[in-house]
Sequence to fold (432 residues):
Amino acid sequence: MTTNVMGIQEHDGLDIALEAASKDAAASGARVFPCTVFEQGKRTMISTSFPFSFLARQVVAESVQKGGDPSNKTNRPLMADHVKTINAYVRENPDDYILPPVTLNARELPALHIPRGNMKNRLGFMVIDDNVVFNVTDGQHRIAAIKGMGSGRSSVPGLVDLNAGFEAHSLAVLIVVESDIRRIHQDFADAAQTKAIPSSLLAVYNTREPINGVLADIIDGTRLFRGRIDSTSSALPKASNAVFLLNQVRQFVKELMFADYALSEVSVGKQSSQIIGEKAARDEFVADAVALIETLSEHMDPWREICELPTTGGPANRVADFRTHYINMTATGLNVIGRVAYEIRKSPDLELRQREYQRLASEIDWRRQATIWQGNIVTADGKVVTNRQPVRTAADKVKAQLGLPPPVVVTNADVPRIYSRRRETRNRVGAQ
Fold:
């Protein structure tokens, strides 16, 4: 027996529901999608997955134009750069990418066949013909990356148009049955209530970036960092016994590699792939970074004292005291160290580097009140600033005190070539 409950066909069992759905599809040239039908509040929700080719054909995003009236549209303006980023991510990682589910809107209830019962969550079958169109509530940029967008030189080719097999891949979808445009707008706003991942935690999880891949090795290989890095917070609590956030160590690594802790993430990804994309280069960089940190930890206050402390318990709370008195216990100080070490590392002479690292540790006064920091990274009222120019000025003063050569203006494009020449020099020295 079949009954119609609020537009949903109920049957005496799942097999009968499938048979009825299949007959409906055969009669209309439609497709059958297995799904889960459930409720949130008083609304019907449908969860399933659609192939990319289906999404490209039967899902549309009603995006408002910049400066236009959003009242009769269901999505914010489409951001081309975000579409390009998603599209490139999938193309560059075809075997192990992940795209989160999208939320779609159905103004009318699709044809649904489910087994009869009083359960609120039931398996069923959805019948969709070529005339059914879904609107995007959340996920328009993922859909645009799949479909493609634009024309001419600025166009983004759709994943389904690349003849790379993506058209057979699928994306999980949540379908909300809602016809009220105001409620659809609210659904979009509700779906946007997400919490950004702290930068430190993202550095742990996003190991596709080569620079993130070396962080764990550097931390594990150094006494100062091991067990003393906060990888989950977005800001270091004042009383924390951690020495740095993971993202602060990542900025230090950017200084060590590019001489720029604020280099854009797009540039970081491209240049780090060139510099440490190969295992040998990555191992070499990690070894250099560990040697630097270990040398400083042996000869520089208060790092030397911290390395003798336990990582937990009462004595570990001294770390917070050190942070209030020493520049090298701040992210800014760590960036200055990275900037100076970047210059030192230009020498292929490892013994010379070691001596300069020791001088950096012992000949520089790293206390906050030291004259060398005043008026650049330490303001008149004693605050430590983080801007690029003060960090550059402070690093130049340290290099001048150590007698290092004056800085040479290097563009970001020069960095991979510098590393290439450095490796060539080392290979020649090693062959002699």
Q: What stands out?
A: Confidence is low (pLDDT under 50) at residues 428-432.
